[in-house]
Amino acid sequence: MGIAVSNIAESCTPNNTLDLSSDEELAGELSYTNADRIIITIVNPCILAVGLLGNLAFLFVMLRVRRMWTVTNIYLTNLAVADTSFLVIGVSEKIARYRASPVSGDQGIFGPGGCIVVYVLLDVAYCVGLCLVTLVTVEKYYAICRPVQHRLIGGKKRTKRLVLAVWLMAWIFGLGLLPTWSNFVAVCAAWPETEAFADHPLVVGSCLPEAVWLVDFHNGLQAVPFFVSLVVNAVLYILIIKRLNTRVGAVNNENSIGQQRKNLRQRVRNQVTRMLIINGSIFFAFMAPFQCSSFAFVISNSTGNYVLNNEQVTKLLWVTRTLLYLNPAINPYIYVITNPKYRQAYVQAFTFRSKNRRVPSTTMVDEMSTYVP
């Protein structure tokens, strides 16, 4: 525990102690359940391991294979960095809390500085992920539906500026929500004098808001942009899919060699587009339960009508958080499963061939895949 918690422990008196010694049932509710232990010690670490393996492998491929340095992959590389940060921080802080204290809500291991660092970084990673997924969709919308405008305004320099702007905006977003977690409070606790509570801490810490309304404000500020982004992406996905379907006939009806090569480039680009649509759809599907529940809590707090009890809320949060962690963990695997261009790049990267050398192509489609924008 931090210095502040240690100092409080030295000055604990009956007057500043939360006395749970006579209420063993209430004290037991504050401890981790068996389901909590399974999720924290088995499920979440497995998700973290899968996510780290996938995202770090993807970053390695981007580093090794120069032909993969496309506009789309600039976005996806930054998304992998944000996803890795979100996973590592989100899962690790729960494991650290579990190992430090048997009290499920105890954040005493953080101290005042930890409350700020952990939750600001989580908010930054969340914001970056949401913005980048939307930017990728917008990029593909212009490439497929407005190709002339895309050629005029596109380019790697513009993309890098947009990515930098996203990171700066995310930091402003995260630091702006800092008061939601910055009030670290540590209180003394007296537990029942039984063996079950022998290892419970004398002092329990919590990262609390500077004002009660800030929690609902934080949840709302995360949920509203999510739903706006969801609608924007859904509309663009529909427009992209309609455009791709109308192109199929034109692509199949051209016979000249030059047109065939152009059509093959379009097909490979469309493969990437479909991959991104699948990835984005899973992104929103996995995040929606958490954001919907957060928004529902905001409404419940404002109206005073609570549908779920504390135990049901805890179970709901574990399910939605697990989906939240699964989302960034599986992104790189979606790229590999849905697109042969990425599988080819993985083979090249992990067989340690030249950074600039292409994997031998057996079809014209493979050859044209190197020209995807």
UniProtKB/TrEMBL annotation:
SUPFAM superfamilies: Family A G protein-coupled receptor-like (SSF81321). It is found in: Membrane. The chain crosses the membrane at residues 38-63, 75-96, 116-142, 162-181, 223-240, 272-290. One of its GO terms (cellular component) is plasma membrane. Keywords: G-protein coupled receptor, Membrane, Receptor, Transducer, Transmembrane, Transmembrane helix. Its main location: membrane. Gene3D superfamilies: Rhodopsin 7-helix transmembrane proteins. PANTHER family: G-PROTEIN COUPLED RECEPTOR, PYROKININ-1 RECEPTOR. This is Thyrotropin-releasing hormone receptor-like. It comes from Acanthaster planci.
